[in-house]
Amino acid sequence: MIAQASALNTHVLVLNKHYMALRVTSARRAFSLLFREIAEVIDVEDGRYVSYDFESWREVSAFHREFQPERHDWVRSVRFSIAVPRIIRLLAYDRLPKADVKLNRRNVYARDRSHCQYCGKRFSTTDLSLDHIVPRSQGGETTWENIVCCCLKCNVRKGGRTPKEAGMSLIQKPVKPRRSPVIHIKLSNSKYASWRQFLDHAYWSVELK
After folding, report:
1. Which of 11, 145, 200, 205 has CB atoms 3.0–4.6 Å from 179's, for a disulfide?
2. CA separation (Å) from 192 to 9, 27, 51, 168, 202?
C-alpha cells in the first residue's frame, strides 16, 4: 500500500471478541490483523455498529471515498484506496500480550499534563524539561517516581539540588501510571468520538502501542 506515514500511524482502538477495549494500535498493525482475518472493522452507521471483514470494508471505503472523504484517513494502493478504520475487533483472541508503560518523554508529559510539577503552571513542550527530583549527581535514578515535568525557570532555580535543598515542593507525588496516559489526549479529538461507546472510566487508560 502507498500512504503517508501519518495515515499508517493513525490510532485504531482494538476490542476483544466481547467488545471490551484492549488497547490502541497503529493503522499499519490494524490492517495486518484485518488482512489475515484475525480482526474485523467495527464502523458507526446511523448510530449503529456494523462489522466488516477486509474485503467488505474495502467496498464500503469506495462509497465513503466518493461521498464522505473528509470523514476518514486514507491509505492508497495501486488499485484502490481504503479508509483507516477507527475501531477493530479481534475474532479469536480475548486479549493481547500485556506491555509495560514505557518511560519516555511523551508519556511523562502526558502523565503530568504538561504542567510544571513545581510551580503548577502549564507550558508547551518546548518550554518544559524533565527533572530528576533527586539529582543524578546525588544517586537519583531515572524512574517514574523520580522524573517530573519542570519548566525552564524552575529547573534553573532548582539546579543540581533536591527540592528540599532548593526550598521547593512538588505539587503532587509522581507515580508510575498503570496504563499509557496518552489515551486521554486522543479522546479529546472528535476524530475518535466513536471510541467512547467502548471506553467507560475504567478503560480510559488502555494501552497505547
Report:
1. 205
2. 14, 13, 17, 39, 17
Check: CB of residue 168 under 8 Å from CB of residue 190: no
Q: How wide is the angle at C-alpha 180 spanned by C-alphas 176 and 186, nearest 5°?
A: 140
Can you give the CATH number for the domain in which 116 is found? 1.10.30.50
Of 203, 190, 173, the closest CA to residue 24 belongs to 203
Percent of the chain beyond pLDDT 70?
A: 83
| Sign (positive or negative) of CA dihedral 79, 84, 90, 96 | positive
Strand partners, 50: 43
14 is a domain residue: yes
Please say whether the beta carbons of 108 and 54 come within 8 A.
no
Please report, for residues 46, 64, 73, 76, 118, the alpha-carbon distance to residue 68 in angstroms, rounded to integers and kept in the order given.
14, 5, 11, 16, 47
Domain that holds residue 12: 5-98+181-208
pLDDT in tens, 128-146: 999 999 999 999 999 999 9
What is the β-pairing status of strands 87-90 and 128-132? unpaired
Using alpha carbons, select from 68, 61, 97, 126 the residue that is nearest to residue 209: 97
**164 pLDDT higher than 80:** yes
